[in-house]
Amino acid sequence: EIRDLIAERLSTYLNKLDPGPLQQLEAGVMPLYALKPLVLFPFQRLLDPFAVPGTGNTPDQPSEGASANAWDVLPLLEKLYLAVYSIRKLPRPVQLHGDLIDSARKQAETPEVSALTNVAAGDIPSPQEVNELIGSLIERVDSFAARVPLAELIRVCRADPLYRFQAYIPKLHLVQFYGDQLRLRVFSAIDSEFPAVRRSLIDQLVAELFPEGIETFRHYGRSEGPEIRLGLPAFRYRYSLEILLTYVRNKYIGEVQELIRIMGRILPARERDAQERLMHNAGAIEDIADRIQYFDRSFGSEGRDGEVLAGYRLTIERDTGQQRAYQKFVAQKNLEALDLLERGLECLRAIEEALTDIRGMNSPNLDHQFRTFDTRKPRRQSLEEVLKRDTEELRSMRVLIRESIAMDEGV
Hints:
Strand content: under 5%
Helix content: over 70%
Low-confidence stretches: 52-59
Shape: elongated
């Protein structure tokens, strides 16, 4: 939920972002992408087949008799057509951002880049000189395109006068790129800090819901020397179980339990489904609380699991077989603890759902019966207020326990 909230706020920020500066930056970077195919084009490979036989090099003035197989040069002609097409599609005038050139000069000053490229900072022209060179290159490309019908040459080589070209020119989409990078940086920072933030939020919610503190286990989940020294798996879900037990003992019994008891008496017969769901899950959640307490007591010195655990702690440091057995024991108990939590959460969900259905009835008669149920002490709060309070508290508890489980699992 925290990640969803942050993602929503990032989207709101990006939707309000003025794309103008990024589009200007895109226009100043795009020439690099358009010029790259021509700058890296293998002209020598294209011209060598037309050289005078026996020389191995392209002469300054190729002989009229030089020839080559069309299929040998066709891939290069198509590649050259794409390079020329990309440049001619650039919006004019073409200006490369000076910051890019200055950045290249600074990088060339570093020993690593200089050794890799054999280019010194002094070899890179100034921004003005670079843009003048780009302008001159574009003029020559335009002149070449006017004099050399590359498209017609390719159609002749393919023997297909109807051959059509589909040239793909890459687009930067810097606005989208900025948004993706911003999300990546924000969520990377969140992921690194999230466990501590989550624990802080959980502790804060627990303190608000249970000002007097939570019931802590006396036995389950207490690691001692041997398993810690060996780095063996730990028992999980202790905090989550303590939260659930505290809620049932300190909040549910007394407040929600009394509400359910009254609803069982005053709900009309046509609402039997909601009544049955309430009564069934009311008994189930109390049974789960008893089982959680028994689960903790079983790890005491006189409990069955406590005796097993004490035996492992005496032997695991010198017996690898016992270490594997201990790991299986811990995994099994973790599954049992998680099962108790899942059953408890399902009961809380069912009770919340049933109370929400009752709240949706919006019955004045039901509200009157609720207020006057105890004639000796009429209630001041309306049924709507009590249902709203208890359903919101049930929902908060389920979210809190789910977050605590996720914290234990490192999710």
